[in-house]
């Protein structure tokens, strides 16, 4: 029920601008267009919550959503697979590495991937950092409605195979914001 009460808390351009490092938060990462905003909105039963992250100038910021007094979701900045200037990439890498390594209240990392294009370089980078930071991770294969059930399951298994070197640390789930597939399962996992 507290997911429904999610609301924008603050945006941070740097780790030292993040809200107090207490309570618990789970961060969402994904390439642009992966379906991350739609996934956050679906999980929080809201239509426009995560749109904040798309305001120009906010694209490189960490966006914090408050769920209740102690719990937060964090929308991490991503970038597109189109050519991104190296300076932007470097800046992003510094941000992300610092946040994932230093943030004590960070309890887990969700890497959102379009089920039709999983495990891009961006995704592998996030999984690598999450692994180094010892974070439990969830690979969310979203837009599952774009594939037939069998093909979606096959992709899920292929991704599970690909991350089997981090078995126990990474779960892989099918999701669809459109069909609201997986909402309750993901909420249960986030609660843990
Ligand atoms: P973000 O850039 O990662 O935040 O991606 P968005 O959430 O804005 O989604 C990118 C595009 O994918 C939009 O056109 C969405 O409507 C579409 N999309 C997102 N989730 C789903 C889904 O579960 N199913 C389908 N069919 N389309 C989706």
UniProtKB/TrEMBL annotation:
User: Could you tell me the keywords of this UniProt record?
Assistant: Cell cycle, Cell division, GTP-binding, Magnesium, Metal-binding, Nucleotide-binding, Septation
Q: InterPro entries, per this entry?
A: G_ENGB_dom, GTP-bd, GTP-bd_ribosome_bio_YsxC, P-loop_NTPase
Q: Which GO terms describe its cellular component?
A: cytosol
Query: What's a single GO MF annotation on this record?
Result: metal ion binding
Q: Which domain of life is it from?
A: Bacteria
Which segments constitute the EngB-type G domain? 22-192
Biological processes per GO annotation = division septum assembly
Q: Which NCBIfam families does UniProt cross-reference here? A: GTPase_YsxC (TIGR03598)
Q: What does this protein do?
A: Necessary for normal cell division and for the maintenance of normal septation.
User: What protein name is recorded for this chain?
Assistant: Probable GTP-binding protein EngB
Q: Which organism is it from?
A: Thiocapsa marina 5811
Biological classification of the source: Bacteria, Pseudomonadati, Pseudomonadota, Gammaproteobacteria, Chromatiales
Q: Which gene encodes it?
A: engB
